[in-house]
Specification:
This protein has helices at 97-110, 119-128, 139-143; strands at 11-12, 16-21, 26-34, 38-43, 52-58, 70-82, 85-92. It is α+β, with helices and mostly antiparallel strands.
Length: 148
């Protein structure tokens, strides 16, 4: 049996990622997994070990809406070819307190400790109220996908 040696839990998540490299290239990518310390990306371009990256995660909030980009600075730890793409391991590097707090919020969403805005209303409404009796969500509730 192999023991997990990671410092932080890893979440399998497929999210759009726009990657900018230190030399100015812009690459589309998808996340494969994400943790507090880094992520695995799938992209069509090979990246060199120690390349500095700015990764904007684009979160899907509904069928037709996305979040503002969540910018994260990282550096490439490893890159391996898979099929006709590349799998890239990137470790977060020098995140600001604001970037870290948004990342932490997203990870709490992934682990289920916070729900998207309106999710608790749907759960409560199904058991205690009909749709016509549902309270009208406030603008803050509608606009905050990670409301507690």
């Amino acid at each position: 049996m192999t023991q997990e040696l990671r410092r932080h839990p890893r979440f399998s998540v497929d999210v759009q990622a726009n990657v900018r490299t230190g030399d100015g290239r812009k690459l589309p990518a998808r996340t494969r997994d994400l943790s507090r310390s880094g992520m695995c990306l799938i992209t069509t371009n090979a990246l060199a070990q120690r390349d500095e990256l700015l990764i904007d995660l684009i979160l899907l909030l509904g069928p037709t809406s996305t979040s503002e980009p969540l910018p994260l600075r990282a550096r490439v730890v490893w890159c391996t070819p898979i099929s006709q793409a590349f799998q890239v391991g990137a470790m977060f590097d020098k995140l600001s307190k604001t970037e870290q707090s948004f990342l932490d919020m997203f990870l709490r969403y992934l682990d289920g400790s916070i729900l998207p805005a309106g999710a608790e209303l749907e759960t409560l409404g199904a058991s205690s109220q009909s749709e016509s009796e549902q309270p009208e969500p406030t603008p803050e509730m509608k606009d905050d996908p990670f409301r507690r």
